[in-house]
Amino acid sequence: MRKCLTIFLLLLQGLCAVAQTTFSYKGTRMKTNSKRLLVNDKKTNDSRFTFRTVKEALRFVERNNGKDTRWTEIYITPSVYWIDNPDEETVRQPAKGENTPFAMSVKMNRVRLIGLSDKANDVVLACNRGQTQGAIGNFTMFHFIGNDIQAENITFGNYCNVDLIYNKDPRKNRSKRKSAIVQAQLVICSGDRYLLRNCRFISRLNLCPFVGGEHTEFEKCYFECTDDALCGTGVYRQCQFTLYSSKPFYTTDKRKGAVFIDCDIHSKTQGTQYLTKVSGPVTMENCRWTSDDPALRIEWNKRPDPKHQCVMRGCTLNGKPLEVPTPTEPLPVELPPFALQVQQKIVPGGWTLDCYKPVDTADYDWIADNSRSSWGYDEGVDGAEGSWGLVQLQKGARMMFTPLDENEKVTRQTCRLTLDPCKGPGQGFGSATGQYLDICIKFNTRTLTGYGIRFIRTPDYDHAVETYLVEYTDGRISRICEPQRCDIFKRGCVVSLTAEGEKLSATIENANVKGACQRLTATMSHPNGYGGFHLQHTGSTGASATVVREVYLK
Q1: pLDDT higher than 80, residue 14
Q2: Does residue 2 come out as left (phi exceeding 0), alpha (psi in the -120 to 50 range) or beta?
């Protein structure tokens, strides 16, 4: 009996040895087990708690997390681990009922991801999709649902608009998907207590490094980003930043704000570097700013709210003491937009002001809502700050003018509009998801037939729009000239349209851009005698709206 028991124990020990993989971490020999996993970029063996991909390891954790209060550690050997297959041509879409497409959503608690190198750029978790570039929606690599999640010695990179350079093995380098910068995100969280040490976060627009957690701490991490990017509940200690645009936060948590301690921040902005797009509290202590622009100004926000505690202590800019005063002046009274009443009826000699969803936006999920106003008299924001005029209050805002005598044959018609888009750099609209502005003349407002010009955001440009002339035929829209890149669809844009005989011509000018003038012409295949006017905006509102400052019809 004793001999049998001895043999059984020896066999059990042998099985346990088989079910483990040995590896080293900081000079210590370690063995895998159900709470200590290894990702080695080679082969998956669940029984040995060893995995080829990070996704497989995370799924193992999710299946076995349960109510166990012990922590699970995932050790990752140096390599590039694609969380989403970059070679798969299928366009990623949000799951049913969601707005954001994720490469991976995972529910787990008490998990540490640890790169097996002191250099964070040796262990790369990667994806390369963004809004309209391989995805519909703001593609995000991870959605972590749970509490107590940590990461160390890891690069989180969305290489949609950034080249992946992997010095450890150049064969794993990969060129960016496109140069035009779009929303390409990293990690969105639903939970509390996130801690990141010696990690790198690489993308551009909407970086989103562990955004959404109640408490998120970053220690000795590095960030590359443009606007609307950083975690608004974050505490950043001894971190480094490269800011490629002027507003790295959309805003911060209204109670806690974001905190920077002993950080190095390099700004590539020219002129003024803001911290937030919408006012929120920020604290900076003993931080060192450097700049490509020796005359750079640092400010909290264009309209800092004194109720938000913004504090700067012991900071420098290019080696000189930097003090950005705490906001104390009360904000000017900000009047709500003067909403214009919905007018859906087409009235001879009158204006139609409503919401409408054109047929060429059918693939995009929004609904025309005429239970509320689509237009208001208001001040623009960002690039249109200080400009007053008619502003869209919802997606699909439309305005049309019907001539008093609808039967009168109009042989020549012109219009001139002055526009101040809120998107200052010139991209015009929130994203390349069927967001455009059409301006039409020689238009029948009852049948939606006529000619005009379109400004549209496309995936090809991040600081410009595409423009071309269009024909409306019973609401169906077709392009009638070659598209052109337009870099002057920004504050002060003046658009003139003329239709005469069979010729349609458009001129785009901007006095704020030296020498800026662009012309388009086309033949109208079906000349008409209509004299109506039509303007359709399918873009987002707020910071993506366009102020219509002047409309002149003749």
Answers
A1: no
A2: alpha
